[in-house]
Design brief:
48% helix, globular, single chain, 414 residues, 16 helices, six-stranded mixed sheet, alpha/beta
Length: 414
Amino acid sequence: MAVSESVNPVDLLREQIEGASPDVLQAMIKTFAQALISAEADAMCGAAYGQRSDERVNSRNGYRHREWDTRAGTIDLAIPKLRSGSYFPDWLLTHRRRAEQALVSVVATSYLLGVSTRRVEKLVEQLGIRQLSKSQVSEMAAHLDAQVEAFRNRPLDSEHYTFVWMDALTMKVREAGRTVNVHALIAVGVNADGQREVLGLDVASDEDGAGWLAFLRSLTARGLTGVRLVISDAHAGLVQAIGAALPGASWQRCRTHYLRNLLTKVPKSAQPWIATLVRTIFDQPDADAVRAQFQRVVATIEAKFPAAAEHLDQARDDLLAFTGFPREIWRQIWSNNPQERLNKEIRRRTDVVGIFPNRPAIIRLVGAVLAEQTDEWTEGRRYMGLELLTKARLVNIETDQHDTSQPDPAPIAA
């Protein structure tokens, strides 16, 4: 229930006292906390709620609810949302509460299962844990698992997800007395409102075609539709899985990851020159210029490094899939960089654990981080404008039909 902006904290407190409410302490705490939150939101807006003022720079746009655990009990606080930007009372609440609970749960589970070391004990102390019982860990894990499972299995009810980024992160887990590598498969999409959204998470033993196909089919079963472009690194079997599970979708190979692969084909002394040449492909003003420059770069590299030129030429269609979409969004779709920033946040949490006690522990922690990130994206500004998104959906991707049989242009001067 949202808090009325016209409520006088003093009047509300008097009503609670006169009514002899058994929760009067909790009501007092909530009243004053809401008053402080409301005052801070008014200060950010430049005027009080409902007040007309020339100094107003923003206005409220509803509420989002957050639970606040106190010694008087759990209090439901209504956090004002703003029409421009966002507001969060960091002085009172902590961002990523679910993620931090998940981290505590994973470390505590490791400790209780006997797979921890002195390092884990130090981590427990750093997290402020003095004593944890099995029942506390069990209750915490059950609460988090319910939230994460609801997030992972929610219906993808957007009208379409035009662009989807995919990546796999390697994690270490103990299974059958051994430490093995497993892969956390993650998909992020742009929904019909232009907002980024984490679409799914799964853990697979092998990062192969079967794992990717099962993951994509689970997404389509939940409602993933309208995908026009999948952006990722060259994961094994992913391209075939896209063709099988997402008919009509093209694949954009991440330009950043590909360049790293290409540079291994030439001597170290030539790598800066090759990198500079390849980057000129992506600096062109339109699709035709991009393709023409690509051909020139291939011809130039071929004069000195034929193997590298062949490698680049074979990747032509995969690297230039972005040219089938509006120029204004090329930077957002020609690489997996947006996903890399998300991966960095995941690694910041999982590196603390090191080796996970089991697969559910991976899903619990990574799923909690992804759920919190989706909340932040929902409250933030659009990742893509609706007009550009509509324009992108009207474009026919025909990268496989581009004519590359014309005579080779003159090589670029070395």
